Amino acid sequence: MATASGDRDTEATGLISLLLSSSTDSFAALGLQPSPSICTSSVRSAFRKRALVVHPDKCKHSLAEEAFRALVEAFESLHNPVNLRRAYDERTKTDEKPPAKRARKQSSRAARTSEAGNNTARSWSWAELERNLHRYEELEKRFKSSQSTKYAVRRAVSSLQQAQRVCADLDERAGIVQNPLLHAEAATLDVSTQPEMAGPVAADPLHLLQLLLYLRETHLYCLFCGQRCASTSRTVRIL
């Protein structure tokens, strides 16, 4: 038991020394190897793992609070995708500079970090830390979900527009007029310049399905293959 406690104290002392070193950047503070493939979930995981070692509620070292504040600053500089990529690019550029310039860069960064830390004097309780990590995770999930939804809407609208254009062209060649499936206002919609118009009507999946079936059954045309077939049995199945 005493050995385990001694090991934790040794780990905490080493980590505190690392976090308070002027040459430690955000990646090193979190124990991460700079890479373009690092994701924000890895940043959160690394932060929590190290917070367990140096958080003042978990560690009795006299410099634990100061070290934890430095850890929080490192986390906040990397916890979203934009900042993470920017930090990686800056780190890459710094590594490519001569040692003297690199040392000056690190010294300047350390001074800014220290000044920011003194100004914010931020320190989370362990309960706040858990809540904040959960909040960051939920925000990331919502962002990814919204991006996925926007992409699906854009794709649906684009497919609908293409189906309407092809349908109108084939109808004209076949002498078919007044097709109820064709809506001029939706056919001319350009969501790249009018994203606010990419609503339920323009991106109606049922409307798109009806057009695809119409093209297949009336014109023996598969929108996805981009060609006509000799019979309906040769068209690509869409259901």
Notes on the structure:
The chain is an all-alpha fold and 239 residues long. Helices cover 67% and strands 2% of the residues. The protein has 9 helices and 2 strands, in the order αααααααααββ. A hairpin with a 4-residue loop joins strand 1 (221-222) and strand 2 (227-228). The longest helix is centred in the middle third of the chain and has 49 residues, at 126-174. The protein starts with a helix and ends in an 11-residue tail after the last strand. The model is unreliable at 112-121, 184-191, 193-202 and 235-239 (pLDDT under 50).
Count of runs of 4 or more consecutive helical residues: 9
Gap between N and C termini, in Å? 65 Å
Structural class: mainly alpha
- Gyration radius, in Å: 29 Å
Whole-number mean pLDDT = 76
Q: Share of helix among residues? A: 55-70%
Strand order of the largest sheet: 1-2
The number of E-state strands comes to 2
Element order: H for helix, E for strand: HHHHHHHHHEE
Q: How does the major sheet shape up?
A: 2 strands, antiparallel
**Low-pLDDT residue intervals, each spanning 5 or more residues:** 112-121, 184-191, 193-202, 235-239
Approximate strand percentage = under 5%
